[in-house]
């Protein structure tokens, strides 16, 4: 469900949250009485993103295990931070490259 701000006689355009976290503060300030609805929507989007990231990491891990590779603790830590949204995909790739280079 997408949060749409109140419709006041058709004079106000609906305010939608696109999923961009930087817009969250602006929308919360505009409609403080709708915070619960907006926060529920944001929480749902964040949970969906974490789940998508978790599935991607698990698929990559399973593929690697089938080929005989076992992840080390550094890579598992980087995967966990990626799933939680603490690092981007590019940062995850950089951490993986660094771990592989340090192992050689």
How is this structure best described in words?
The chain is mainly α and 104 residues long. It is 65% helix and 0% strand. It has a domain at 1-54. Helix 3 (73-83) packs antiparallel against helix 4. Residues 1-14 have low confidence and may be disordered.
Share of β-strand residues: under 5%
- Along the chain, the helix and strand elements come as HHHH
Fraction of residues in helices?
55-70%
Distance between the termini: 49 Å
Instruction: Quote the average pLDDT.
Output: 75
Our count of helices gives 4
Q: Tally the beta strands.
A: 0
Summarize the main sheet: none
**Which term fits the overall shape?**
elongated
Radius of gyration, in Å, reads 20 Å
Q: What characteristics describe this protein?
A:
104 residues, mainly alpha, 65% helix, elongated, disordered N terminus
Task: List strands and helices in order, with pairings.
Elements lengths: L20 H10 L4 H32 L6 H11 L5 H15 L1
Helix pairs in contact: 2-3, 3-4
């Amino acid at each position: 469900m997408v949060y749409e701000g109140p419709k006041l006689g058709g004079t106000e355009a609906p305010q939608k949250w696109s999923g961009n976290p930087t817009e969250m503060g602006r929308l919360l300030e505009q409609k403080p009485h709708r915070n619960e609805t907006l926060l529920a929507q944001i929480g749902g989007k964040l949970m969906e993103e974490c789940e998508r990231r978790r599935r991607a990491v698990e698929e990559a891990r399973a593929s690697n295990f089938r080929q005989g590779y076992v992840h080390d603790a550094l890579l598992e830590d980087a995967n966990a931070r990626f799933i939680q949204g603490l690092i981007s995909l590019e940062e995850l790739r950089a951490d993986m490259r660094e771990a592989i280079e340090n192992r050689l």
